[in-house]
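thought: fold this chain, then report.
action: predict
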Amino acid sequence: MSNILLGCIADDFTGATDLANNLVRSGMRTVQTVGVPKDGSNAALKGEVHAVVVALKSRTTPSSQAVFESLEALKWLKSLGAKQIYFKYCSTFDSTKEGNIGPVTQALMEALHTDFTVVTPAFPDNGRTIFKGHLFVGDVLLADSSMRTHPLTPMTDSNLVRLMQSQFKGTVGLIDYKVVAQGEGALKQRIDLLRSQGVKAAVVDALSNEDLMVLGRAVKDLPLVSAGSGLAIGLAQNFGLKPTNPCANSPTNLPNPKGFKAVLSGSCSEMTLKQVQHFKGLGLPFFQLDPIKLSQSSSHIQSALEWAKNQFKQTPGPILIYSSCAPDEVRLIQRALSTSTSMSISNAGEIVENAMADIANGLTQMGVGQLLVAGGETSGKCVQALKISSLQIGPQIDPGVPWCYALGGTSKAPQNKPALNEGNLGIHMALKSGNFGREDFFSYAWTLLPH
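observation:
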């Protein structure tokens, strides 16, 4: 394998597949790894690879841990010869006041000995745009969107300059839409001006994909870019690569799927709740997890798996197991858990995530070969539980969500009960960020895989 062109560090698993999806569609042969390979090798990378995306689960971890993991990923990507580094975070800039976007960006800049980077979570295809430094989700400001009530990272400020400045040591500036509209030359000049004024990072407005293409050309020589997945569409051109149409040899083609179909949904986002309701409205089988019962006994997990086993005797799926609920219900559950067990909000979330991971393992052992997971934290836990080491990116289902072919699992089925996917090898997976996807996503996604 020759040196890679672009090395990417993503702060969660759904975000990683989101980024890899855009890179593949823009013409870059891309491999996604789950964390840094334990031996630090490039054994998972075969043939010609243009970009590597390292998926971390660092969005809501303590800042020091997020920085450490990101620097380890950087070290490995540099050993592969990456010419540019891409730090990818959510298109809704999910973070706490302390980080982790600012601290990780700062650490990567210092490690790369660079004095400037851009900040742009824009993803117009999914309604994320930036105007005068303010992030819009569809037609509303971030602070007025459903992200305002996110249980782990509530976003109550739409001003990206202010948000970034609160968790970043250097000065944060703005490059507004007027400059972007003037093209690559004007954008480069503004970057040079800001650097001369001591600005270390600049939020860049983007209202359309064309804006991201212009920005992509303007940041060609920056050692580090920080962005959502949208900017990915503008980087392949810098390496002489062009979008390719799907064909027999396209990197988006996956092996034929096998096994039962299942959906695991841990996200409580507005769109995921609609997707859950749509699935149920079709009369398809579903099982709702109860966080209170999960906190009391593991038997609730076994109940979910027994239910799934009985369903698969009647249908190949899809079936749905979910914990998703509206913000008011989430708060009631959190209050009940904190009262009865003195449990923090993050601990309450971990109970559900760990349960979903155990269920994912159980489902694959009983023959699930096609698995759709909704929610960034849930996806991370499930991928780690299945011991998946890398993902081949397949066809896009909706903007930001592709089907993937998961490789490298080592989990084994119970003795004398061989699973269809023993070793968790060759599982088709879709990892969906909470607010992504159309309303019928849980039923529509399967039509994008061969029958």
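thought: worth noting. Residues 410-424 have pLDDT under 50 and may be disordered.
final: tokens above.
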